[in-house]
Amino acid sequence: xxxxxxxxxxxxxxxxxxxxxxxxxxxxxxxxxxxxxxxxxxxxxxxxxxxxxxxxxxxxxxxx
Length: 64
Fold this sequence. Notes:
The chain is mostly helical. It has two helices and no strands. It has helices at about 10-20, 35-64. It is elongated and about 50 Å long.
Protein backbone atom coordinates (compact mmCIF):
# COMPACT_ATOMS: atom_id res chain seq x y z
CA UNK A 1 0.00 0.00 0.00
CA UNK A 2 1.23 3.43 -0.84
CA UNK A 3 0.02 5.07 2.36
CA UNK A 4 2.16 4.47 5.42
CA UNK A 5 0.73 5.24 8.83
CA UNK A 6 2.02 4.10 12.15
CA UNK A 7 -0.37 2.43 14.52
CA UNK A 8 -3.54 0.45 13.88
CA UNK A 9 -6.05 1.54 11.28
CA UNK A 10 -9.80 1.28 11.40
CA UNK A 11 -11.54 -0.92 8.86
CA UNK A 12 -12.85 2.13 7.01
CA UNK A 13 -9.37 3.71 6.77
CA UNK A 14 -7.94 0.44 5.46
CA UNK A 15 -10.75 0.00 2.95
CA UNK A 16 -10.29 3.54 1.62
CA UNK A 17 -6.55 3.06 1.25
CA UNK A 18 -7.04 -0.24 -0.60
CA UNK A 19 -9.65 1.38 -2.85
CA UNK A 20 -7.32 4.26 -3.73
CA UNK A 21 -4.34 1.96 -4.32
CA UNK A 22 -6.12 -0.75 -6.28
CA UNK A 23 -8.74 1.26 -8.14
CA UNK A 24 -7.37 4.73 -8.94
CA UNK A 25 -9.67 4.94 -11.95
CA UNK A 26 -12.68 5.36 -9.63
CA UNK A 27 -11.79 9.06 -9.42
CA UNK A 28 -11.27 9.52 -13.16
CA UNK A 29 -13.78 10.13 -15.92
CA UNK A 30 -12.06 7.75 -18.32
CA UNK A 31 -13.68 4.52 -19.55
CA UNK A 32 -12.90 1.42 -17.53
CA UNK A 33 -12.15 -2.03 -18.90
CA UNK A 34 -14.42 -4.67 -17.37
CA UNK A 35 -11.82 -7.41 -17.73
CA UNK A 36 -9.15 -5.28 -16.01
CA UNK A 37 -11.57 -4.61 -13.16
CA UNK A 38 -12.29 -8.32 -12.73
CA UNK A 39 -8.55 -9.08 -12.78
CA UNK A 40 -7.88 -6.44 -10.13
CA UNK A 41 -10.71 -7.68 -7.92
CA UNK A 42 -9.51 -11.26 -8.29
CA UNK A 43 -5.98 -10.24 -7.32
CA UNK A 44 -7.27 -8.30 -4.33
CA UNK A 45 -9.38 -11.27 -3.22
CA UNK A 46 -6.40 -13.63 -3.41
CA UNK A 47 -4.23 -11.18 -1.46
CA UNK A 48 -6.84 -10.83 1.28
CA UNK A 49 -7.25 -14.61 1.53
CA UNK A 50 -3.49 -15.04 1.93
CA UNK A 51 -3.33 -12.33 4.60
CA UNK A 52 -6.22 -13.88 6.51
CA UNK A 53 -4.74 -17.38 6.46
CA UNK A 54 -1.36 -15.99 7.53
CA UNK A 55 -2.98 -14.12 10.44
CA UNK A 56 -4.91 -17.25 11.45
CA UNK A 57 -1.70 -19.34 11.43
CA UNK A 58 0.03 -16.74 13.59
CA UNK A 59 -2.85 -16.69 16.05
CA UNK A 60 -2.87 -20.49 16.30
CA UNK A 61 0.88 -20.48 16.92
CA UNK A 62 0.55 -17.88 19.66
CA UNK A 63 -2.30 -19.69 21.39
CA UNK A 64 -0.36 -22.98 21.64
